[in-house]
Write a structure and sequence with these properties.
Order of helices and strands: HHHH
Number of strands: 0
Radius of gyration: 20 Å
Oligomer: single chain
Number of helices: 4
Strand content: under 5%
Shape: globular
């Protein structure tokens, strides 16, 4: 039981630690000028998309086992609250400061990952129905080779 919890939650906690560490670095700017701004904002989107996926996985296997919608809701709430706490943390880092815009960008990353995950589920579901022959009277219909 404890082994399962560690296996599920350790990646999410490690990712949270990485985000915390990166937020602790006083100056993360590069010499790319305006490209630096785009690069850093894309990093926000990606890091919080990954956080959502890891936390959702952990919730699916533990607290919200068997309830995909609840796990997704919990993961969204956790990820957005972590984004808020991360910005608060940055208020204590020299040359850094909290920004509501960063929380919004982080939330966009969470929602993009959520929609992408849901879209993937829909594709898998429709593929499964086609391969099982639902509505065709056939079994093992391969949708990639149908005439």
């Amino acid at each position: 039981m404890i082994n399962k919890i560690v296996r599920l939650w350790l990646p999410a906690l490690a990712w949270c630690s990485l985000i915390f560490y990166l937020s602790s670095v006083p100056n993360l700017k590069t010499e790319f000028g305006f490209g630096d701004l785009i690069l850093r904002k894309m990093a926000h989107v990606i890091e919080y998309a990954v956080l959502f996926l890891l936390v959702r996985r952990a919730f699916c296997g533990s607290i919200a086992a068997g309830d995909s919608r609840r796990a997704t809701a919990y993961a969204i709430i956790f990820s957005v609250l972590y984004a808020v706490s991360d910005e608060y943390h940055q208020s204590f880092v020299p040359t850094r400061g909290p920004a509501v815009s960063d929380v919004l960008i982080d939330t966009a990353g969470v929602l993009i990952a959520c929609v992408a995950y849901r879209f993937r589920d829909c594709i898998n579901l429709s593929t499964r129905f086609c391969r099982q022959g639902y509505g065709t009277g056939k079994k093992d219909v391969d949708i990639t080779h149908e005439a």
